[in-house]
Predict the structure of Reverse transcriptase domain-containing protein.
Amino acid sequence: MYILTKTLTKTITAAVSKATTVKTNKNQNPFSLPPEIKTLIKSRNKLKRRAKQFADSELNKQANKISKQIKIQINSLKHEKWSEFLENIPTGLADAWKVSKALRGTTKTFFPPIHGERALVYTDEEKAEAFADSLERQFSPNMSQTDDLDFEEEVENILQEIRHRQTPPNSPAIPPVTLPELKAQITAPKTRKSPGPDQISNKTFKLLPENLLNQLLTLINASFTLRTFPTLWKTASIIPIPKPSKNKTFPQNWRPINL
């Protein structure tokens, strides 16, 4: 399962890279629009000029209506281009991560100096360590003399038993996920969301061809059957988000977001 997960991840990132590194004719503008869209743009601009000249609200409404048509056609064209390249899955491309970085954008959150164990820290490494220490304290169990140690031992024994048990007793079989169900779950999340450690964005998932969706479906159903998930799917990036109206120099005033 690990090999299949790695292969699927590499295939997706390679497809993204191919979709954004297309060679074009030097004599042709790679960003030129189709003639029908250019015609709509000219008509829209002409209507806007006339609407401004004669102060005609009806002409302005017509221009706005054409603007919506232009936007729809341009978005459709983008999806067609993505689908065209993703259908021809390439392998062995090394610049896929550059493409993923471009899709994520360049937004960067400013981190002020953070209170560490002894004093304010300024470097990224020291800040990361301060956040890690803070999260460890926040998510550690509260131990006191009044705790029921026998109960804690019982819970720990049950957890150990569950960890070493392949299949819980008398557990019903999990029905397999179907392709329509997978597609519905992929289309549900918002497109402009930050990716996790694999750097595969929601937009990429939404544009995957059916052959890759079937591979992903195989992984998901295998996970349900074996009752375990690939290690790569259990790894996440923790992004701290400042709590509103709180002192940002204290790590406990930042909320961890899991990607």
Residues 35-104 form one domain.
